Amino acid sequence: MILIIDFGSQFNQLIGRRVREHKVYCQIAGPDISLEQIKEMNPEGIILSGGPSSIYEKNSPKADIKILKLKIPILGICYGMQFMVHALGGRVAGTGRREYGFAELAVKEPDGLFKGIEKQTTQCWMSHGDSVEVLPKGFKATASTENTEFAAIANPAKNYYGVQFHPEVEHTPKGKIMLKNFLFNICKCKPSWTMQSFAQDAVDKIKNQVGDNQVILGLSGGVDSSVAAMLIYKAIGRKLTCIFVDNGLLRQDEAKQLKIRLKQHLDINIRFVNASRDFLKALDKVTDPEKKRKIIGRVFMDVFEAEAKKIKDVQFLAQGTLYPDIIESVSAFGGPTAVIKSHHNVGGLPKKMKLKLVEPLKYLFKDEVRLLGKELGLDEDLVWRQPFPGPGLAIRILGEVNSQRLKILRQADAVLLEEIREAGYYRKLWQSFAVLLPLKSVGVMGDQRTYENIISIRAVTSKDAMTADWAKLPHKLLGNISNRIINEVKGVNRVVYDISSKPPATIEWE
Ligand SMILES: Nc1ncnc2c1ncn2[C@@H]1O[C@H](COP(=O)(O)OP(=O)(O)OP(=O)(O)O)[C@@H](O)[C@H]1O
Ligand SMILES: O=c1[nH]c(=O)c2[nH+]cn([C@@H]3O[C@H](COP(=O)(O)O)[C@@H](O)[C@H]3O)c2[nH]1
Ligand SMILES: NC(=O)CC[C@H](N)C(=O)O
Ligand SMILES: [Mg+2]
Fold first, then answer.
1. Is residue 254 annotated as a catalytic residue, yes or no?
2. CB-CB contact of 459 with 432 (8 Å)
3. Where is the catalytic site (predicted)?
4. Is 166 known to be catalytic?
């Protein structure tokens, strides 16, 4: 396995992905990971990620410099390389020669990271203000750009490599080869990590973690929690009880349909709990998005704890949390990445919890979970279900959430989904849904003045929800959706289309 030490780069999840694309398992840890922990993990190689800080600043994140004595190959990327240089006695400084975006990389020798890259120059993608000025002993420059003499460095005797640019982004076209060289030629990894081996590993880990205890799992009918349920069921069988919570924030007929479907496809203990009243009561008059999310996280937990009490020996709560849920929710390792929004299952959880978490998917991305689902034999329909957030319609009703507004949004959303499905767009889109705005506008219907609600259509394409683009839906389809919503949903007289990407917007509106 490869250990990635995260200094707060926006791209660290991408590094992980790239490593796994080469069928090598990896884990990401904060710079505060101890030497003992690293030894226990016994990685074949360590990748030090980039980060927003400058190494010569007093409080910049630093890993234990003893990792440089472990005789494990190291690849430092950007800040990661600067950390390594600084720790080994070289010099890093803000030279004023900043580089953002494309740069032409002149490779000195097709060896080490650059093995197989025959061409003398290739493109790379840069994002830095600091540069290496003096190399530590034993290092040489292996590539440079116009502004950066030490764009890539190596100490082959020790298997230490550093790059100032980012090999993990798509804009470095040969980045894949460089990472491959690091993994297979330098670290001598074997490409043996597959979804199958991941599943086996995950099952073993679950067994270890929970022992003879009972586990409850929040089952939403989405792909993540369904896959988590299958893994845990494999590990502990009937000691798993799934709990499906109707929080009153689900889409039209969803609770009913899910009940039927879940029973059909997953032969597992499932309890259905209707807690709509608790959720709606707690959300009464609340308009702030983060408050809504925290309230929902808390009520979910109240329900889970109450259910746990009804079963003997429950100490664990399992969830289908994925890596992007965590990235956006927490300021990673107390450090540099910012909180974007509190996903109900991560940042929305209460600080003190009686139940311990089991989250077998927390290092995976959605497309990986879908592959895993397929591998485990999960029903096609479930594998390809569009994601639906736990806080449900509450974060798609801007402003107050009440039963009247829920009714409007449910109807509009049902029309939208029906049209999207009929037009053959459901699977092509990451998500497609309706949002109810906290505004009214004037219209004229049957010669009468109306003053009614506005629905926004949101449809996006994405690979992993970290970034997303608004979908270029055909005008005819948009027209049909708009017509039908205005005609069929009482209380709506205007429909708009959201044409913002993520970033700078997010997929959900709250
Ligand atoms: N209605 C619900 N009842 C029980 N647990 C839920 C419910 N909604 C969400 N959860 C829990 O919160 C986790 C995160 O929700 P999320 O929507 O991200 O995942 P999912 O529903 O499993 O999959 P998808 O992203 O495809 O909807 C779920 O995996 C599940 O454990
Ligand atoms: O289970 C969830 N609990 C949450 O609190 C939550 N918030 C956002 N999402 C889903 O995450 C993806 C990214 O959403 P954003 O671009 O809005 O951050 C999108 O797919 C969102 O639907 C959530 N899922
Ligand atoms: N992307 C990075 O890792 C940047 C490193 C450092 N902050 C610099 O500006 O050089
Ligand atoms: Mg969901």
1. no
2. yes
3. 78 (nucleophile), 166, 168
4. yes
Identify whether 168 is a catalytic site residue.
Answer: yes
Q: Please give the single-letter amino acid code of residue 156.
A: P
Show the domain range for 490. Answer: 396-497
Give the pLDDT confidence of 214-251 residue by residue, as tens digits. 999 999 989 999 999 999 999 999 999 999 999 999 99
The long-range contacts involving 149-154, CB below 8 angstroms and separated by at least 24 positions, are: 151/103, 151/105, 151/124, 152/105, 152/107, 152/113, 152/114, 153/81, 153/85, 154/112, 154/113
Q: Return binding residues.
A: 220-226
Reported as a single tens digit per residue, the pLDDT across 19-48 is 999 999 888 888 988 999 899 889 999 999
Ligand 4 centroid to 244 CA: how many Å?
11
ipTM reported for the complex, 2 dp: 0.87
Name the domain boundary from 186, 213, 245. Answer: 186
Q: Which of 26, 44, 78, 99 is catalytic?
A: 78
Please state, in angstroms and rounded to a whole number, the distance separating the CA atoms of residues 255 and 392. 12
CATH of the domain at 265: 3.40.50.620
417 and 345, same domain (yes or no) = no
The response to whether residue 79 sits with its C-beta less than 6 Å from ligand 3 reads: yes
Please list, residue by residue across 57-96, b when 16 or more beta carbons sit within 10 angstroms of its beta carbon and e when fewer do.
eeebbebbeebbeeebbbbbbbbbbbbbbbbbebebeeee
Cα→Cα distances 124→19, 50, 85, 223, Å: 18, 15, 21, 36
How many structural domains compose the chain? 3
In a domain, 389, yes or no: no
Q: Considering the domain boundaries, does residue 459 fall inside one?
A: yes
Annotated binding-site positions for ATP: 220-226
Global pTM reads 0.77
